[in-house]
């Protein structure tokens, strides 16, 4: 004989109706968003890496199914949704503005040159704790250090050197919003619907009485 979850818990003298299941895919999405809010981060594949790896590598575990897939690096078990992606060639003014915190440092001119050497791939990535997790996935700034402490990271695998280090990721949520506005416009930074790439895979069930 089989019992439903509700029936089984009722038999165990736990108040009935303590389970909830989303009544539709739309409700499930709303409830998931409520309990597991997604964060957005800004990610950029720098010109050298975008050129070198163009067309031969893919984001394997990201929910993306567009032709832009061809232009991204291979990232395993990342679990990000790519909400926005496009190719963009930064001007010198844009690159200098983007990295203005580093103005005056000895590598600043080289950094601007590196960022304007060709088109970059810019993306908005969504996931719970996206900012921190993308930075972990990138690895340390210097690929030599990345190879030692985080050999699976993107920089350990794809960076050329500390300057031409394959990828950028926002360092905090506020920077992420500013960079998204910079690349995609204000509206996109503060509101945009989930992209068509985001698929709902799970049925959401939670216990109402556990807290
Ligand atoms: N010592 C250095 N020599 C040459 N280039 C450097 C050096 N330090 C940093 N850079 C370049 O400047 C960028 C910004 O440096 P930052 O210290 O903010 O590192 P990061 O936060 O790991 O990188 P990013 O801001 O690109 O995500 C680096 O990604 C790298 O391209």
TrEMBL record:
Q: Which GO terms describe its biological process?
A: cilium movement; negative regulation of oxidative stress-induced intrinsic apoptotic signaling pathway
Q: Which cellular components does GO assign to this protein?
A: cilium
Q: Which residues form a coiled coil?
A: none
InterPro entries in the record, alphabetically? NDK-like_dom, NDK-like_dom_sf
Q: Where does ATP bind?
A: 46, 107, 135, 141, 155, 165
Which residues are in the Nucleoside diphosphate kinase-like domain?
A: 38-191
What Pfam families would the database entry show?
Answer: NDK (PF00334)
SMART domains (alphabetical): NDK
Q: Which residues form the active site?
A: 168 (pros-phosphohistidine intermediate)
Q: Which family does it belong to?
A: Belongs to the NDK family.
* Name of this chain's protein: NME/NM23 family member 8
């Amino acid at each position: 004989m089989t019992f439903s979850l509700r029936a089984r818990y009722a038999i165990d003298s736990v108040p009935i109706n303590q389970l909830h299941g989303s009544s539709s895919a739309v409700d499930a999405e709303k409830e998931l968003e409520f309990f597991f809010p997604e964060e957005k981060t800004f990610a950029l594949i720098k010109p050298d890496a975008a050129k070198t790896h163009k067309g031969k590598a893919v984001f394997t575990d990201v929910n993306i199914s567009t032709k832009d897939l061809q232009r991204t690096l291979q990232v395993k078990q990342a679990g990000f949704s790519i909400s926005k992606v496009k190719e963009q060639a930064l001007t010198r003014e844009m690159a200098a503005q983007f990295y203005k915190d580093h103005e005056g440092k000895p590598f600043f001119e080289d950094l601007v040159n590196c960022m304007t050497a060709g088109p970059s791939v810019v993306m908005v990535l969504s996931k719970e704790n996206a900012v921190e997790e993308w930075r972990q996935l990138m690895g340390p700034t210097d690929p030599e250090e990345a190879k030692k402490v985080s050999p699976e990271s993107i920089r350990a695998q794809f960076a050329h050197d500390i300057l031409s280090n394959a990828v950028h990721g926002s360092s905090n949520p506020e920077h992420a919003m500013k960079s998204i506005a910079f690349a995609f416009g204000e509206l996109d930074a503060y509101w945009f619907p989930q992209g068509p790439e985001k698929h709902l895979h799970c049925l959401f069930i939670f216990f109402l009485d556990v807290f």
